[in-house]
Amino acid sequence: MAKVAVIIDDLFEDVEYSKPVEAYKKAGHEIIHIGVKEGKKVYGKKDNTEVIIDKAAKDADPEEFDALLVPGGYSPDHLRANDDAVEFTKKFAETNKPIFLICHAAQLLVTADVLKGRILTGYKAVIQDIKNAGAEYQDKEVVIDDNLVSSRHPGDLPIFIEETLKKLN
């Protein structure tokens, strides 16, 4: 089964974390939480979900993982301000392993400068960021561009989860 890194920080969109992670665990995949500081507790926007960071981004090796999930909310914006999180994301993208983005998640990859020439979707507030990064934006429930799977918002979760599970299996 796959080992999925979930890079996450405070104020993530609860369901964009909990629903995919629940589906991945049910399918037998292992989840490892990556963040700014190992052992830190981070909370979702709705304060319903608590996550404990398993490994600091500075200590995480992308080679250890089979896929990367980036939930949306304010978490990607917080992470893009952290050099270690950006560097981990950039190195992970260089492996060409599956990356799963939903909502505002593209912000982190914009800062990591790994979207040029890619095709993806995301929340309407990040459309210009995506285009400015040299990527093509498509307004669809899910966009699959080789190893990159992206969706716009929580309403797209069913198809997002379906397509990301295909990549994991």
UniProtKB/TrEMBL annotation:
PROSITE patterns reported in the protein's UniProt record: PEPTIDASE_C56_PFPI (PS51276)
Keyword Protease: yes
Molecular-function annotations in GO: peptidase activity
Keywords associated with the record: Hydrolase, Protease
Signal peptide per UniProt: none
SUPFAM superfamilies, per database record: Class I glutamine amidotransferase-like (SSF52317)
NADP found in the keyword field: no
DJ-1/PfpI domain: residues covered: 2-166
GO terms under biological process: proteolysis
Entry-linked InterPro entries: C56_PfpI-like, Class_I_gatase-like, DJ-1/PfpI
Family: Belongs to the peptidase C56 family.
Protein name: Protease I
Annotated organism of origin: Geotoga petraea
